UniProtKB/TrEMBL annotation:
Protein name: MBL fold metallo-hydrolase
Signal peptide: 1-30
Family matches, as InterPro entries: Metallo-B-lactamas (IPR001279), NDM-1-like (IPR050855), RibonucZ/Hydroxyglut_hydro (IPR036866)
SMART domains on file: Lactamase_B
Segments forming domain Metallo-beta-lactamase: 82-258
Length: 350
């Protein structure tokens, strides 16, 4: 299958999912990992720190999009389990991460609040599912506003896009890496790049200083245990450091690109969960002999041994964590994969 046909297929599957979501009936939501106080979705009422949107899974499954006002000027958007934020200034709108296949609903959500032009777009990191909606959005804006928005990204993201010959619209304003600041009208926005990053080598956190809002997609999914492969991270190695770095910044609301609106309690939960996971993985490594589960008389290549070993370690760690964490969102799907990443980390670094 060609690359073009692969993308065509993925777009078709996304469309099929979007069409079928409306047919899903309401189901019981998973319990909160942080004892959250939930409030009904509102595009007009601001949140108090620590509050989260109620019934979020069902809203994602049954509505075109969710729009929540976080502060006086910052709004949180989510559809199909992908989220981002936008800030409304005196003259224009600052949008973070134009999500893949979501240009129209994002623009519709913004237009439901304001008719001010979108004057700037920020790329948080070079993953297409978070930024490839830029081209579609620019086409939609072409006839509705006089000037196209500037596109802002870090030097690391810009360099990566060039190196990988990205076909996504390139940045027009590049910030120094790993730390820099820009002004959007009266708003100060700080770039905090992770010099040693777990998710991608250009992964970063963006702090809306005046709003006390932090935007760092794929760092963690709030109100959930860590997602599969720690939100699709390229490595586990530096994740705990990245979480602690972001948690130390001065913010009240967090957008992780997936999951609910986050708080510092979500970071504490993730760090505790990871500590427990590392403990159980280490225990299983000590219990499971290398080659466990492999009939050596029936193989002609040793390559089956390592993944089989990791698989058994992950199973035992998942079983051990289930009594404490098993009722939480996505536990059965996410934890085995995460345990394998931790096993690789603990095996490699001693």
């Amino acid at each position: 299958m060609s690359i073009k046909n692969s993308f065509t297929k993925s777009v078709f599957l996304f469309s099929l999912l979007s069409t079928s979501l409306a047919a899903v009936s309401s189901v019981a939501e998973a319990p909160s990992t942080v004892g959250a106080h939930y409030v009904p979705q509102s595009s007009s009422k601001v949140l108090a720190p620590g509050e989260k949107v109620t019934n979020l899974f069902n809203l994602n499954m049954t509505t075109p999009y969710i729009l929540q006002r976080i502060t006086e000027n910052t709004y949180w958007y989510q559809s199909g389990f992908y989220g981002t934020i936008f800030y409304i200034g005196d003259k224009g709108v600052l949008l973070f991460d134009p999500l893949e296949q979501r240009a129209e609903p994002i623009l519709k959500s913004i237009r439901s609040i304001t008719d001010k032009p979108i004057t700037a777009i920020v790329y948080s990191h070079d993953h297409a599912d978070h930024i490839s909606g830029a081209d579609d959005l620019l086409k939609l804006l072409k006839n509705s506003q006089k000037e196209q928005p500037k596109i802002i990204a870090s030097k690391a993201t810009n360099k990566k896009m060039e190196l990988l010959e990205s076909n996504i619209k390139k940045p027009t304003k590049v910030l120094n890496w790993p730390n820099d600041t820009f002004k959007f009208e009266d708003l100060e926005v700080q770039l905090h790049g992770f010099e040693h990053a777990a998710h991608t080598d250009d992964h970063s956190a963006w702090l809306l200083v005046n709003e006390r809002v932090l935007h760092a997609p794929d760092l963690l999914n709030a109100d959930q245990p860590p997602f599969w492969n720690f939100a699709g991270s390229e490595r586990f190695t530096y994740l705990e450091q990245n979480l602690k770095t972001a948690d130390a910044l001065k913010w009240d609301f967090f957008n992780g690109g997936h999951g609910n609106i986050g708080s510092h309690d979500d970071f504490a939960f993730h760090l505790k969960f990871i500590a427990d996971l590392k403990k159980e993985v280490a225990k299983a490594i000590g219990e499971v002999p290398f080659g466990y589960g492999v009939d050596v008389a029936k193989i002609n290549a040793h390559t089956i041994m390592l993944p089989t070993w990791y698989g058994e370690i992950a199973k035992r760690a998942t079983d051990a964590l289930r009594p404490k964490y098993g009722s939480y969102y996505g536990f059965e799907t996410a934890v085995p994969a995460n345990a394998e990443m931790v096993a690789e980390y603990l095996y490699s670094y001693r």
